[in-house]
Each structure stands twice: as structure tokens, then as C-alpha cells.
């Protein structure tokens, strides 16, 4: 299976730009396609002259959705623009991005902007243009700004799709550059190459000092993908508007619910894209209170854990055994994890932590020389490692007050050398949170195996977690994505006009 990008226009003459690698066809050709003529998962950009109800433009997007193509604009977008039913919250977001525009003469009360795939030349309006495309997913838009007499500020007066023929020839270069960026295709003549079997976006933050995967590892993923016929591209937060041009998403940033990683995951799910990590996994795994409760409710052995608040912690004085571990539920990489040696020490720690969270966790202290980390993908263990404690410290990661940190050594272990009870506990616990890619931290003691936590975006670095399995680990991950994309393509039927189910319904499932 491969993917291609198709541009649909009403007349070929409407698309006046030459040397495009992209397939440009007419709306009549698109509508008349036979079911057996399409052997690929496609991305369709509908640049018809109009998207009016029951027009050719409308039907092209409608039929593309029925065929399982990923189409821009969607029928939902078309109807919203036609009916002028933009959500107030979305318009408010856009209005906040309009600056004072002091260089515009006071005699001018209306501005008309032409935005191509979220791109406009004026830096003062670039954020507005980019966000308009993120929110409404209309390739070519005409946005009208109106001056507000009372405040002298500007607000959006109207938004509508722009006819391709109305792209000013003086702005051809802007259009071409925007389309090139959007489709990720070079416009220079190139030797014909096979189309990739899948386009995978890997979200990362090059400035993060503690990423789940370092740059060397991400480059390894790109290289392995190339050998498998998979196009792997590293993207960042700023690439949100381009997300739907990929087939799947692999998040390699530290995730959080109040973070852009969660928005990327939600967007991918709404578009029907396979994603690691999905929103439900992020929601469940990033909160240790949820994990402690669900593990306890399902009889998974964990250290004894209690939840405390400002009102309840004083009453626990005689019910606690020291030392104990104190955690903020949504901490990551051993941040906001402390050890209390007495009740007075606990009160000092809790005073600061309760400023961040209404609830903190008090967990039984279990010292071991190392923690097990078991990587689990879709319910199957894929790697194992021992994470040793830092010298003279009780954690695998020690943070200093100056922001620096030290790490204990890591030893990869072949899966057939891992105690069966450790593997069983890891796999059993992940089934409670989802079917994605997880790293389960466990302690093996004379009293048994205890699950400490489940990480939704486990560390994966060259020479560390992959030391036992090598390149085969990356092949397994990429094969998992490819299988999900192929299943989606092969089972494609009519896609819902409303993109994506509400997240609360998703989480409840």
C-alpha cells in the first residue's frame, strides 16, 4: 500500500502552476472514478471553484470522505463556512491574534486577506493566518477584518473559501511555497521514486533536556523507516496545521493533559489517524492518582498508596510508616517525587506540593537496587531493561537544585531472561489503560512483584532500551503503525461528516 496526494480542480486550466509532482485531476474525473481504480490511501486537496451545497466542490469532498480519503476541506468545514456558523470560541481565538495594525491608515475600515494553507506574507498577520487554517482547514481562505470604532481594534467580519482563480499572479510564489510546505513535496523535477507506504509524523521537542527519545534515536527511526518504504518526518509543535497530511503520529515528547501533545493526540484521533500515544492513554498514565486507583481496584500488586489533601493529611499522623514516598500525581521523570523520613518532613514537602495539586500521593517506600522497565506494545512485551539507582541515591534519576540531573545506569535484558512474573504483571497492568506503547516500572522484591507506574511515552534510546533487540525494536514499532494504517485503509467506509467523537465519549469507552 502507498499513499498519494491528489489535487482536484474544476478545470485543469485553473491550476496554472507547472512542474508539480502532485497529481492534478478535474472534479469530473474524480467523481467518475471506479472503485477498483484506487489502490492507495490518498490525501485529497479540493481546490474547486466553489463549495456551495450540491456543487461539484461539495460533492468532491463528500465522495472523498465516502471513499476513505483524507480530504481538505472536509464537508463539515464546507457547511460551517457556507452557513456562517463558526464557533464563537474559535472566532475569539482568532480575534485575539489580530494586533493593533497601527500602520493601517485610520481612513481604512476594512481589510481583505487571502490566506493560502495558513500562510500570508505579512508577519503581523502570520499567527492569525496559521490559526485560521488549524481551526477551519480550508485550503484557500478570504478573511475580512473590520475596524472596531469604539476600541480602534480589529475583528473578523467574514470568512469564506477563496476561488483558486482569484489567487493574484503577483502572489504565485507565496502560493507555491505554501502548497509545497503543506504537501511536503518538492516542486523541482525529480527522478521518479516509489511512493512511501506510509507517512509517519514524529512529534518531538529539540529543546527538551529529557526527551523520551534523543535526536540520534529519532534519526535511527527515520533510517529504519526508509528501508521499510516508510516516510518518517520529525515535526514540532509549530507543525500542528500540517498534522492531517500524515497517515499516523508518534509522539516523542513528554506528554501532559494541559499540553500541546494532548491536542496533537486528540486531533489525530479525530482524523482517524493511528497515534501513539492516544489521548486516553495520556489522560490515564500521566496521573498517578488514576493509576494507583485502577491498579488497586483490579488487584494488581502495587506499593501501598494513600491520597492526601490539605484537610486529610493531619489526620494521617498515626497511620503512616516512614520513610514514605510523596508524589504530585502528574509529575514525570522523577520530578515532584520526594522521600519523607518523618511526619514533620512530610508536612514540609506536602506544603509545597499541595500548591500544585489538591491531592498528593503517599506511597510505601520500597528500596531495590534497580527497577524493571518493561516496554509493552499493543499488549505484547517488546523490550526489558534494568534501571539502576543513582549512586548514593534512592531514585534512578536525581535532580539537583540548579536544574542539572544525574541518571543511574541502564542495562537492557533479553525478554527470555526476564522473570515470567515480571512480564505478566507488566502486560496485565497495561490492559487497564489501553492498547498503545507503554513503559511499565516494577520492583521485584522477596514479597513479590509490584507495579510502580505505567508510562505512556516510555524512554527509547539507541544503545539503551534497544541494546538487546537492536534495529528489530524499531521495525516492530513501525510495523505496528503500518498495520494500523493498512487496516484503516482496507476497512474504510463512509467517514462521519462530523470529524471525531467527543473526547469524553472516547475516554468513557
In words, what does this structure look like?
Helix content is 29%, strand content 24%. The chain has a five-stranded antiparallel beta sheet with strand order 20-17-16-21-22. A hairpin with a 2-residue loop joins strand 16 and strand 17. Helix 4 runs antiparallel to helix 5 and helix 7 packs across helix 13. The relative contact order is 0.10.
Ordered list of secondary-structure elements with their pairings:
Blueprint: E1 3-9, E2 23-26, H1 27-32, E3 41-46, H2 56-66, E4 70-72, H3 75-83, H4 88-96, E5 110-116, H5 126-136, E6 140-147, E7 154-161, H6 172-183, E8 198-203, H7 215-227, E9 230-235, E10 248-251, H8 260-270, E11 275-276, H9 279-285, H10 288-297, E12 305-308, E13 324-327, E14 337-340, H11 343-353, E15 360-364, E16 370-377, E17 380-388, E18 397-399, E19 405-407, E20 410-412, H12 420-430, E21 437-445, E22 448-455, H13 471-490, H14 503-508
Parallel strand pairs: 1-2, 1-3, 3-4, 8-9, 8-10, 10-11
Antiparallel strand pairs: 5-6, 6-7, 12-15, 13-14, 13-15, 16-17, 16-21, 17-20, 18-19, 21-22
Q: Rounded to an integer, what's the Rg over CA atoms?
A: 26 Å
Strand order of the largest sheet: 20-17-16-21-22
Total number of helices: 14
Shape descriptor reads: globular
Q: What is the makeup of the main sheet?
A: 5 strands, antiparallel
In the predicted model, the low-confidence regions spanning at least 5 consecutive residues are 185-193, 492-509
Average of per-residue pLDDT values: 83
Structural class: alpha/beta
What portion of residues is helical? Answer: 25-40%
| DSSP E strands, number | 22
Q: What percentage of amino acids are in beta strands?
A: 15-25%
Number of domains: 3
